[in-house]
From TrEMBL:
Pfam families: Fer4_10, NAD_binding_1. SUPFAM superfamilies: 4Fe-4S ferredoxins, Ferredoxin reductase-like, C-terminal NADP-linked domain, Riboflavin synthase domain-like. Keywords: FAD, Flavoprotein, Iron, Iron-sulfur, Metal-binding, NADP, Oxidoreductase. NADP(+) binds at residues 193, 213, 260, 316-317, 323, 352-353, 391. This is Benzoyl-CoA 2,3-epoxidase subunit BoxA. The keyword Protein transport does not apply. It comes from Pararhodobacter aggregans. Gene3D superfamilies: 3.30.70.20, Nucleotide-binding domain of ferredoxin-NADP reductase (FNR) module, Translation factors. The gene is boxA. Residues 6-35, 37-64 form the 4Fe-4S ferredoxin-type domain. Its cofactor is FAD.
Length: 393
């Protein structure tokens, strides 16, 4: 007789198909088809290694089941099934205690489970997949950073012609690099945040932009950065159902980023510029880069009026000037940050280098506690209300 057991599952609506969990799992319990990434109940030994590496929290789903969902069932899901009613049993409870302890440990390194802002537009996800990708045409490839900085960040424009590609600000798409890996398998898509607003890089064109940094050994980033006008690119997605902007025009947005982590914030800013001209809650940005000429969109960003977007551009490697990180400037601006933290209209977004997360958290903690707010409780409540979003890599 099958005992009820706790099964580890992935939420297909929130999963962005980055395959990091699959690459991390030491027992190869995680696998994918063209549609979904799934967990094999027979192989998963609850080691929890996949929990902290998931950028969305979609990996952190559990159902008590009499019979585990099969791989084929999971491959077919568009959404997770609800927890079925099952009488509690001591077997499950014993398992729960041990698992809760493991999970608590794993969560220490995780961004936590994210939720979309309550007023966000419902996103479309997973419209195109590995078996049925969209084909986009490259209509632009501009270098955003100067040669002297050594950094090569590109603004890539992709046009989808007659194929629908409904993306919201904050969502990502996958690019499938051509060719095969060492085992002869097609390459998996790499994910890039869309940096244009929902009505297109050019308003009312069926196009979007990406902000891509060339990585020395990066298979896909080199492919993308070398694309020529007219080239065709295979695209999956859109992905992402939580790192979205509130539709409420009074909402205030605090955005913290490094490097290409600025991509979604360019989209947020352009959305507000186009859709809510003159009448929106404030947006504040802390943006870190090595130098001004390696900060993507430095010129255009400086032209965005301060009344729409308050910009704190900070630099870590200007010769003769002390290194400054985003968290250092947050401390300098602590009054403004404290004011935002205390306001239930505020949404916080953090995007960029994973290493920045710890420093930013510490700055928030210092600022919150100096005004008598308990940081962890504030953050967790904000996350639960869809007002705290982290996407780091
Ligand atoms: P640095 O590399 O000088 O230590 P880019 O993607 O253009 O390199 O920008 C990333 C920026 O983030 C750089 O200024 C980098 O500084 C900075 N950075 C690196 N580590 C951290 C960290 N732990 N916290 C905040 N910023 C960081």
């Amino acid at each position: 007789m099958n005992k009820p057991l706790k099964q580890h599952l992935i939420d297909p609506e929130i999963c962005i198909r980055c395959y990091t969990c699959e690459m991390t799992c030491p027992v190869e319990a995680i696998t994918h088809d063209d549609n979904n990434v799934v967990v094999d109940a027979e192989k998963c030994d609850f080691c929890m290694d996949c929990i902290p590496v998931c950028p969305t929290g979609s990996i952190d789903e559990w159902r008590v089941v009499e019979t585990p969902y099969s791989l084929d069932e999971q491959f077919g899901w568009q959404e997770l099934p609800a927890q079925a009613e099952i009488g509690s049993s001591s077997g499950v409870e014993a398992l729960d205690d041990a698992m809760e302890a493991l999970l608590a440990e794993a969560h220490k390194g995780a961004g936590g489970k994210s939720k979309a802002p309550a007023t966000a537009t419902k996103p479309t996800v997973n419209l195109y997949n590995l078996g049925k990708p969209a084909t986009a045409k490259v209509t632009g490839n501009f270098r955003l950073t100067s040669g002297e900085s050594g950094s090569d960040v590109r603004h890539i424009i992709l046009d989808f012609g007659a194929q629908p590609m409904p993306v919201l600000e904050g969502q990502s798409i996958g690019i499938i690099p051509p060719g095969t890996d060492a085992e002869g398998k097609p390459h998996l898509p790499r994910l890039y945040s869309v940096s244009s607003p929902r009505d297109g890089e050019r308003p009312n064109f069926n196009n979007l932009s990406l902000t891509v940094k060339r990585e020395v050994q990066g298979l896909c980033s080199n492919y993308v950065c070398d694309l020529k006008i007219g080239d065709e690119v295979k695209v999956t997605g859109p992905f992402g159902a939580t790192f979205l902007m509130p539709e409420d025009s009074a909402a205030r947005m605090l955005m913290i980023c490094t490097g290409t982590g600025s991509a979604p914030f360019r989209a947020f800013t352009m959305r507000r510029q186009r859709a809510q001209a003159g009448g929106s809650g404030d947006m504040i940005m802390f943006f870190g880069a090595r130098t001004p000429d390696s900060l993507p969109y430095f010129g255009p960003l400086n032209k965005v009026p301060e009344r729409l977007l308050k910009k704190h551009l900070v630099f870590s490697r200007i010769p003769g000037v002390d290194k400054e990180y985003v968290q250092d400037r947050m401390m300098v601006e602590q009054e403004a940050v404290a004011n935002l933290l205390a306001d239930p209209q505020t949404h916080i977004y953090i995007c960029g280098l994973r290493g920045m997360e710890q420093g930013v958290e510490l700055a928030f903690k210092n600022i919150a506690e100096s005004t008598g707010l308990a940081w962890e409780a504030t953050r967790d409540a904000m996350r639960d209300e869809g007002r705290y979003h982290v996407e780091t890599y």
